[in-house]
Amino acid sequence: MSGDKSLQVPVIDISKLLDDNDDELAKLHWASKEWGIFQLINHGLSEELLQKLKTDAKDFFEQSLDAKRAYSQLPNGVEGFAQASVGVEGMSLLWGELLFLIPLPTLTRKMRFWPTVPSSFRATIDKFSVELQRVSMQLLMKMGKNLGVDEEKFGSMFANAGIGMRMNYYPPSEQSDEIIGLSPHTDGTGISLLIQDDDEVHGLQVKKDGKWVPIKPIANAVIIGVGDIIEVMSNGEYKSVEHRAVVDPKKGRISIVTFHSSNSWSNIGPLPDVVKEKAAKYKTINHEEYLRMVVKKKGDDGKNGLLSHMRIY
Q1: Cα 189 off chain centre by
Q2: Is-above-0.85 flag for pTM?
Q3: Strand, coil or helix: what is 296?
Q4: Per 3-state DSSP, what percentage of the chain is helix, strand, and coil (rounded to 5)?
């Protein structure tokens, strides 16, 4: 599962976007349209904070299984600790552990799922989630600008929305050709922002022109993935990226991904400014209906299960 190493995902400098640099805005538009994924640099997240986040995640996953199970997900719940180590005959095994939290809005936090070991964990997640939300909103507004939508109006559709965070640990395995850390899928949110602990282990892969391409992380960059909501809102102009996580035979890997969705009072469908002079390719539904669809369809066949249900034929 090594993938095609000859291709490289785009790199976007957000400091240039904030200065409305035409070349960088054009590059963002191209990356969102042709790749659906890129690495974001000069984002303002301190190296110290990123390193602390990685260290705290590593310290949590290095605890005993019993200690981690104290934060286990409840039946039919999504928050908390869980394991994935199952497989079906003739298919790749899933292999890994995860901790899923919803750090924002702060009033909806379920602290029973927030580890107290290491002692700095909660404070680190609190600071990181606020900082990452800032970056996410800055980026979303520039994506809206590229789509011909008023920046503030587009940003308001994502303001005060829930932020989900998933920490993943993929242990090493000598059966790495048969085991997969995370099955191919797209994300049902607006954008995803990913950080991984080791720049040398290339575990994330994206599908480009029918080939799996490994991401070679840049130190302290944030990997941005376009999600299903942005594909729908852009009327297919931007592509929700299909991706997977693979396992290394010798070294474990930790990744931290946050999911930024639209807020609960915004409808999900092609933006009116985007479809002024073209036919809508997707339905428009309310947020509650969309969430039900995510839960029902996402487990079917990844990308096609959800977006094909939204698409107008």
Answers
A1: 8
A2: yes
A3: helix
A4: 35, 25, 40
